[in-house]
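#struct-help
A.M.: can someone run this one for me? Single chain, 72 residues.
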Amino acid sequence: MSSDTTCQGKSSWPELLGAEGKVAAATIEKENPLVEAQIVPKGSLVIQDFRCDRVWVWVDERGIVFQVPHIG
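D.P.: on it. Structure tokens below:
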């Protein structure tokens, strides 16, 4: 997809803080079908390129979202 910083659809999910990671990923993909939500364990390294079709869902050791998921 384009690396343009103008992305389509919902771009941030603050309401998912504290949610279970798998539920959060499914919610994100339902609310914006143009993105793929990827669950990432706390402390993991991820590529830093900006993509309109990707949302990192950062989870703690219990699988709970601890950072606001957003497009990038």
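A.M.: thanks! The chain is about 15% helix and 15% strand.
D.P.: also worth noting: The radius of gyration is 11 Å.
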